[in-house]
Amino acid sequence: MITSPRTGSEAMSLFLPQSPFVQHMGIELIDIDEGRARLRMPFREELVTVGDMVHGGALAGCVDIGIMAAAWAGARLPEQLRGVTVSMSIDFVQPAHAESIDIIGTRLRAGRHLSTCRVDIVATGDERLIAAGSGTYKVG
């Protein structure tokens, strides 16, 4: 058990399971490494818009969480452990119907305080692209 995180990856491993929003979405961390994180959101009927289609707001929340995880992945910890998504965009490619999705976040660039990240939302089974997003995350 990690008592105090030493890296951003360890911080995410501790933070994500305790976040009320992440828990509400049912998101779990699959893998996290230098500049890359993979998470999974199992299908839940509470997150649909019509029929069995996953709500766009749930997908946007996944992009936001993917940006955060990618920004922290492998990063050195700042003096104060805090951060926020400062900008985000998302393109919806095709709907997810009654299926789990994977959230693949990649840090494209890390500056002193700002990281630019990309997130692909893919169907868990066949990696079909559901949505793609990007954003900037501020650490510290």
Automatic annotation (TrEMBL):
For this chain, one GO molecular function annotation is: fatty acyl-CoA hydrolase activity
Q: Which InterPro entries match?
A: ACOT13, HotDog_dom_sf, PAAI_dom, Thioestr_dom
* All residue ranges annotated as the Thioesterase domain in the record: 53-127
One Pfam family it belongs to = 4HBT
Q: Which UniProt keywords apply?
A: Hydrolase
Family to which the UniProt record says this protein belongs: Belongs to the thioesterase PaaI family.
User: PANTHER family per the record?
Assistant: ACYL-COENZYME A THIOESTERASE 13 (PTHR21660:SF1), THIOESTERASE SUPERFAMILY MEMBER-RELATED (PTHR21660)
- Cited NCBIfam families: unchar_dom_1
Protein name listed in UniProt: Uncharacterized protein (TIGR00369 family)
Instruction: Look up and give the organism this protein is from.
Output: Nocardia fluminea
